[in-house]
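Self-study notes.
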Amino acid sequence: MSTPDNRQQPSLRSQRLNQITHAPHARLDQLVKAHAPFETRAGFARFVVAQYLFQSELVALYNDPELIAIIADLPERCRAEAAKADLADLDTEVPAPLAGAVNNPSKAEALGWLFVSEGSKLGAAFLIKRAMGLGLGESFGARHLGEPAGG
C-alpha cells in the first residue's frame, strides 16, 4: 500500500543522525584542515597526537564486556595502540591523557562515542592516501588510519 503524495515517509534513524551531526562534523573538518595535517610530517604528527588523545579516551569502551556483547569484535577495532605506534614512528612523544570527556557513560552514550569513532574510519580511507604522500602508510606512521587487523 502506498502513502498519499501529501504525506512524507518518516526519516530513517541514520538520516536523522546524519542531519544532527552534520554541523559539528563540518566545524571539526574545517578545524582539522586549518592545521594542514598533510603538508608536512610535523603537521601530520600533530594530527596523530589528537587522534591518539581521542582514541585513548575510548579504550575502556572498546573493552567493555556489555558493549562487546553487542559488537563482538569491538576490542580489535580500537585504534589507540596503532596511534601510539604511529607517534613512535614519527618521533613524537605520547601525550599525557586528557581524561574526562568519557566519564562513566550510559550504554547509549557509550554507543554514541563508538559511533563517532567508528564513523571516523569512513574518512580514514581517504586520509591514508594523503598520508602516503608523506611516505607514511598502514605499516609506518599512519597505522591508525588503516583497517584493523582481521578487518
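Second protein, same conventions, sequence then structure:
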Amino acid sequence: MKVWRQLAEFVGRHGSAALVSVHEVKGSAPREAGARMVVRPDGAFHGTIGGGQLEFLMLDIARDMLARGDRQARLLDQALGPDLGQCCGGRVKILIETFDAHDLEDIERLAEAEEGGTFEVECRLVDGRVVRDMSSAVGDDAETQWHETHGEERTPVLVFGAGHVGRALVLALAPLPFSVRWLDDREDAFPRHVPGNAVAVRMQDPAAEIAQAPPEALVLVMTHDHPLDMAVTAAALSRGFPYVGLIGSATKRARFEKRFRELGLSESRIGSLVCPIGLPGIGGKEPAVIAASVAAQLLQVRERGLSGLNFSRPTAANDKSAP
C-alpha cells in the first residue's frame, strides 16, 4: 500500500486522517515493524497492523485522536498477551499520528517519493510531531531517533497472453507486490478495466519485450498460439530470468524441450523451465484455481528465490492444460 498517497487522498476528501504504524516488535506479533494502516475520521481504513484486539484498540485510539483534533504523536507499548489477550505473546510499540490540511505539502512530498519505489527517511520528534527527512538529503544527524522505510518494492512480472488464465492471473496478482506488464498481440484482447499494478500492452515484438525486460523479471507464457508460446519461452530461457513459467501439460513440455535442444539451449536453461505452472498438489484447471496457485508460486520465488525449490519438474497434480 502506498501510505502517503492514501493519506493525501483521505486528508483531501475528509479533512484529516491518522497513520498507525508498527514501530517496534519484540517476540511474536501479528505483523512486522513497518506495517501500517491509514484511518479516516469515520473509522474506515486501508492497510492492517495484523487484525485482532490490537488493531481494534488502535483504530479506536486513532479515531478518538482525529475527533479531538489531537496533533501529538502517541507511542503505545502493548504486551499482546497480558494487555490484549492475544496468543502471540510478544510486545509491540505502535506509533499513531494525525494529519490535516496543514500537513499536505509534506504528505505530497513523501507521496511523490513513493512513486519511485522504496526509500528511507530519518525521523525525529519535534514538539510532539514526527519530522521525516529523506536520508539522501541529510547526513548523520545526532537528533535522528529512528529510521523508516516507505514505498513498495514490487517484483516485475511479464504475463504473455490475455486469455482466460491470463485474465485470472492478472487479477490474482492485483493486491500482491508485483508490477505486471501484460502482453497480447490481438486487438481487443484486454478487458476494459485493468488493475492498478498492471499495464496492458498490445504486443508488436515479443523478442523486444524479452530483451528489454529487467533481469529480475518473472515471466509467464500463456498465449493463444503454441508457436508464439515456443518463441517467447525460448527467448525468456535464453535470458536466464529467475522464473520462466509456461502453461501446459507434461506432454507439451516434452515437445517444447525437444525444440529447445534443437535451438541450442543448454540443459540447465531447459531444466529451469516451470511447466506445468503452479504449486504441486493443486490439481484444479479452472482459471481462478490456476491463477491462485501460480500467484502463490510467484510469491515463493519473490521471497526465497529458486534456491532449494524444485519448480521445474512436472507432476500430474499440477498439469494445468491439455496436451
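Instructor comment on the second fold: The CA atoms of residues 176 and 228 lie 28 Å apart.
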